[in-house]
Write a structure and sequence with these properties.
26% of the residues lie in helices and 21% in strands. It is α+β, with helices and mostly antiparallel strands. InterPro entries: JAMM_MPN+_peptidase_M67A, MPN.
């Protein structure tokens, strides 16, 4: 995710290109990669919460062929309390799966200054 702090969360051409690259990278491992753009301080937004755009980039290109087409999808806000036991279970699964990964960053380790 990234933010467009003070304007609409519509993807720029750079956003589209970056998202397409991440999708390509993550798809090699069989994973999907959903992009999110958040606009927390847009003065044009009358609502009391941030604007959010979720998107994926298709393989289709624009009519002039200069960029791949983004597809936005709707997000529904969850009004009920999350199922915390399920959240904890999934979080623990992620921790166990990746804690010994060769690319894991030891967050508790103090790194020396360079």
């Amino acid at each position: 995710y990234h933010s467009h702090p003070a304007f609409d969360p519509n993807p720029s051409l750079r956003d589209i290109d970056t998202q397409a690259k991440y999708q390509s990278y993550f798809s090699r491992g069989g994973s999907m990669f959903v992009g999110m753009i958040i606009s927390p301080y847009n003065r044009n937004n009358p609502l009391p919460y941030s604007q959010l755009t979720c998107l994926v980039i298709s393989d289709e290109t624009s009519s002039d062929g200069s960029y791949r087409l983004p597809y936005k999808f709707e997000v529904q806000q969850m009004l009920e309390e999350p199922q915390w036991e399920l959240v904890l279970e999934k979080t623990q699964w992620i921790i166990e799966k990746y804690r010994l990964s060769h690319s894991c960053v030891p967050m508790a380790k103090i790194f020396p200054r360079v």
